[in-house]
Specification:
Elements lengths: L2 E12 L3 E12 L3 E5 L6 H9 L8 E6 L2 E2 L5 H6 L2 E4 L11 H8 L7 H12 L1 H5 L10 H13 L5 E5 L7 H16 L3 E6 L2 H7 L2 E6 L2 E7 H6 L1 H8 L5 E2 L5 E2 L7
Parallel strand pairs: 3-8, 3-9, 6-7, 7-8
Antiparallel strand pairs: 1-2, 1-4, 4-5, 9-10, 11-12
The protein binds adenosine-5'-diphosphate and magnesium ion (MG).
C-alpha cells in the first residue's frame, strides 16, 4: 500500500525552547491502522497537533507530506479540508448541542450524495447515537461521547483519521467497543493513526506500531513484532507480571535495548 503520510525529522518546540519532538520520523500507509505508543509526556499529543497544524509555527524543522504534497505549516482548516481529521483527547464536542447537531457539524459543507450512507454507517456502528440523537452531548457517558466524536469525524469522510487516546478513562468493556468500532472503520477503508498509552489495546487492532519516548521514536515494527519484543512486553504489555523488590521498587529483567 502507498504511503499516505510521511513525516521526516520534525522538531516541535513549545515557547521556542521546550523540545517536545526531537527529529521524529514516521510513515502511515494507506488503509492500515498505525499506532504510536508511549508513556505520559512522550509527545504523542504534540505529534498529532503538529500534523493537524494546530501548533503555531511548528514543526520548527523537518517535513510533513500528505498524499505526496507538503502540508508543512498549512493552516489547520486547510489540513482538515485535505482529509486529515483529528479526534482530540477531550473529544472536542459541542457539549450543549444535541447528538444530532454535533453529527451535522461533522458533515457541514458536504454536498455529495454519500452523506446519507455515512449516517447509516455511523448509526449501524453506534446505534446508541440514534437513540440519543436529541439529547445534549454533555449528558452522554464518556464512552458515548467518544463514540459521538468518532462518528462526527467519520462524517467528514477523512482520508486519515487521527485519534488521541480513545480508550482513556473508559471502562474496559466500553474501551473494547470503541476499539471494535475502529476496526470496522478501518475495514471500510479509512486509514487510522492512533495514539495510545494502552499498548495492549492498540496492538490488538493495529497493523504497525511505533514506540515513542521523550519526543523520539525508539522502536518500530509490525504489531506482531512489537508484541513479541521482550522490552515491549516488559515495559508496555506487563507480560509476566510486575516484579517488585521488598522495598517496593519495580524490577526490570534487563535494561531496554533502545
Ligand atoms: N502547551 C504546552 N506548553 C508547554 N509544554 C507542553 C505543552 N503541551 C505539552 N507540553 C510538554 O511537551 C511534552 C509532550 O507532551 P504531550 O505531547 O502532551 O505528551 P503525551 O501526549 O505523550 O502525554 C511534555 O513534556 C509536556 O510537558
Ligand atoms: Mg497526550
Amino acid at each position: 500500500m502507498g504511503v499516505l503520510l510521511k513525516i521526516s525529522t520534525i522538531e516541535t518546540l513549545y515557547y521556542d525552547r521546550i523540545y517536545a519532538l526531537h527529529g521524529l520520523s514516521l510513515e502511515v500507509k494507506e488503509k492500515e491502522i498505525f499506532t504510536v505508543l508511549g508513556p505520559n509526556g512522550a509527545g504523542k499529543t504534540t505529534l498529532l497537533k503538529t500534523i493537524a497544524g494546530l501548533l503555531k509555527d511548528q514543526p520548527n524543522k523537518g517535513t510533513i507530506e500528505f498524499m505526496g504534497k507538503s502540508i508543512h505549516r498549512l493552516p489547520p482548516e486547510h489540513i482538515s479540508r485535505l482529509g486529515i481529521v483529528y479526534v482530540p483527547e477531550d473529544r472536542g464536542l459541542f457539549r450543549e448541542l444535541t447528538v444530532k447537531e454535533n453529527l451535522d457539524l461533522g458533515c457541514w459543507g458536504r454536498r455529495d450524495k454519500g452523506v446519507k450512507d455515512d449516517y447509516e454507517f455511523v448509526y449501524d456502528l453506534f446505534p446508541i447515537l440514534k437513540e440519543r440523537s436529541k439529547q445534549q452531548a454533555e449528558t452522554l457517558s464518556g464512552g458515548q461521547q467518544q463514540m459521538l466524536a468518532m462518528a462526527r469525524a467519520i462524517l467528514c469522510r477523512p482520508k486519515l483519521l487521527m485519534l488521541d487516546e480513545p480508550s482513556l478513562g473508559l471502562a474496559p468493556v466500553i474501551a473494547h467497543q470503541v476499539y471494535d468500532a475502529l476496526l470496522e472503520i478501518s475495514k471500510a477503508g479509512t486509514t487510522i493513526l492512533l495514539v495510545e498509552q494502552n499498548a495492549k489495546m492498540a496492538l490488538r487492532i493495529a497493523d504497525f506500531g511505533y514506540i515513542m519516548e521523550t519526543g523520539r521514536i525508539v522502536l518500530e515494527g509490525t504489531s506482531k513484532e512489537l508484541q513479541e519484543n521482550e522490552d515491549v512486553q516488559e515495559l508496555y504489555l506487563g507480560v509476566g507480571g510486575e516484579r517488585v523488590s521488598p522495598k517496593g521498587w519495580r524490577l526490570y529483567k534487563k535494561r531496554r535495548t533502545w
